[in-house]
């Protein structure tokens, strides 16, 4: 006895949209040699629905592809392909495995050499429909950005930049190349180049052929209410990891502006639009620049806005949340800034994958927090004192209110103790590692000072 067609579960398949125009190179052989296989990549409109599983803890996992087999011979083809190419394989079945084993993460890796700029990484991965968490400042050295945390619009979805590091090659003070030292890798993932010269790093990468991203500019006089409401939204709603938002104060064309960065790191645009509407409804939107985009397009758009080489002072640190006290400090700073300064205050609300405990990393924070960066570049050295006083005032007022959780090592001055970046226990462990691999303190021109 055979079931009628009404009992059979069907999903439409169109190679143009389900495989997509830019599938991963890792799938090229499977696609070319087996054109009848129903292969669904992340660009497919069916992908998100097909990968749904019962335990939502593992729902963010994105496999390289989903293959809907229709015969035992196709099962054999897929297994042989995965074994030959050393690709992880899972059988989804009904998707109810309690520990998420029916949905594996298809992320692979990329090796990035020392000195490589973020823009080079973004441009290369874009050609393959792939991403790795990165900053929007494409001129930044990618390794240095990642070692001390690494913040940007993809971190809530995939983890901090430092979480992407799989392994690294480092030449220590004795001139020897180190690669498989787990304690050294733990130290690098948080303290960076304090232990030697890092020549290359292997990073995780993820399929993301398109996303929603951009900036919303609100009425400046609504900033205080919006800051309160966005923190309330984050506190009360079940925020998906795919969403990253941040608030930004700056001066554009001589006028103060208040904007919000919006990032939706998923091809499920229907859900992304729902969250975009919630953010828009926080205030009066003057300019809406959020659209379907890629990380490359977004970085290219931001590039002309980045500060040029200048004299400047900056302070970067972490606070628990944008409380009313913190919001008032930022508003006061943005209204009392000297007219001669070009300035900016940026924040990112960190959660999702970025706050999962990482025992293989020395980075300190693993609970929700806000990353805050204040920058005041000036073209003439004579005006640098104004810049320093303005940025210092923001940090000192936050400290006086007891709001600062830790300093951000990558952009920290020599006047702040390194212990504040790691906490006492991790600091002592890092200090012991430093004495072990660099007792002569050869590598001392770095932010992480342990001697």
Tell me the number of helical segments per DSSP (H or I, 4 or more residues long): 15
Shape: globular
Helix fraction? 25-40%
Strand count: 16
How would a crystallographer describe the biggest sheet? 9 strands, antiparallel
* Rg, Å, rounded: 24 Å
- How many angstroms does the end-to-end distance come to? 78 Å
Describe the structure.
This protein has helices at residues 15-18, 28-33, 47-50, 72-84, 118-126, 142-147, 155-158, 182-191, 223-236, 269-280, 295-302, 324-335, 384-400, 419-422, 424-437, and strands at residues 38-40, 66-68, 108-113, 130-131, 165-171, 177-178, 197-207, 211-218, 243-252, 255-264, 285-288, 291-293, 311-319, 344-350, 369-378, 404-407. With 451 residues, the protein is α+β, with helices and mostly antiparallel strands. The N and C termini lie far apart (78 Å). The radius of gyration is 24 Å and the shape is globular. The strands form three sheets. Strands 8, 9, 10, 11, 12, 13, 14, 15 and 16 form a nine-stranded antiparallel beta sheet that branches. Strands 3, 4, 5, 6 and 7 form a five-stranded antiparallel beta sheet that branches. The protein has a two-stranded antiparallel ribbon with strand order 1-2.
């Amino acid at each position: 006895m055979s079931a009628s067609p009404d009992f059979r579960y069907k999903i439409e398949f169109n190679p143009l949209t389900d495989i997509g125009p830019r599938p991963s190179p890792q799938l090229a052989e499977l696609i070319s040699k087996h054109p009848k296989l129903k292969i669904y990549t992340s660009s497919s409109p069916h992908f998100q629905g097909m990968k749904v599983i019962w335990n939502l803890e593992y729902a963010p996992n994105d496999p390289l592809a989903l293959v809907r087999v229709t015969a035992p011979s196709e099962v054999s083809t897929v297994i042989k392909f995965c074994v030959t190419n050393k690709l992880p394989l899972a059988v989804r079945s009904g998707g109810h495995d309690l520990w998420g084993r029916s949905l594996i993460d298809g992320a692979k890796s990329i090796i990035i050499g020392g000195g490589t700029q973020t823009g080079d990484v973004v441009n290369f991965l874009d050609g393959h429909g792939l991403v790795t968490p990165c900053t929007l400042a494409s001129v930044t050295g990618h390794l240095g950005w990642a070692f001390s945390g690494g913040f940007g619009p993809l971190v809530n979805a995939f983890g901090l930049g430092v979480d992407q590091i799989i392994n690294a090659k480092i030449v220590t003070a004795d001139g020897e190349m180190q690669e498989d030292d787990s304690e050294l890798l733990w130290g690098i993932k948080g303290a960076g180049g304090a232990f030697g010269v890092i020549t290359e790093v292997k990073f995780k990468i993820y399929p993301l052929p398109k996303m929603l991203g951009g900036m919303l500019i609100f009425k400046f006089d609504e900033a205080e209410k919006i800051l309160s409401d966005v923190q309330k939204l984050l506190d009360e709603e079940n925020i998906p990891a795919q969403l990253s938002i941040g608030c930004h104060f700056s001066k554009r064309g001589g006028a103060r502006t208040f904007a919000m960065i919006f990032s939706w790191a998923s091809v499920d645009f229907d859900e992304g639009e729902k969250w975009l509407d919630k953010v828009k409804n926080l205030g009066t939107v003057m300019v809406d620049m959020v659209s379907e985009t890629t990380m490359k397009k977004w970085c290219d758009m931001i590039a002309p806005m980045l500060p040029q080489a200048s004299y400047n002072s900056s302070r970067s640190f972490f606070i628990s949340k944008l409380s009313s006290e913190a919001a008032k400090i930022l508003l006061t700073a943005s209204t009392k800034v000297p007219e001669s300064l070009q300035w900016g205050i940026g924040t990112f609300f960190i959660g999702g994958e970025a706050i999962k405990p990482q025992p293989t990393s020395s980075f300190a924070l693993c609970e929700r927090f806000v990353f805050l960066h204040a920058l005041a570049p000036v073209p003439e050295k004579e005006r640098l004192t104004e810049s320093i006083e303005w940025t210092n005032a923001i940090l000192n007022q936050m400290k006086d209110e007891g709001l600062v959780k830790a300093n951000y090592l990558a952009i920290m001055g020599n006047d702040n103790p390194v212990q504040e970046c790691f906490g006492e226990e991790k600091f002592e462990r890092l200090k012991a590692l430093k004495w072990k691999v660099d007792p002569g303190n050869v590598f001392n021109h770095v932010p992480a000072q342990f001697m």
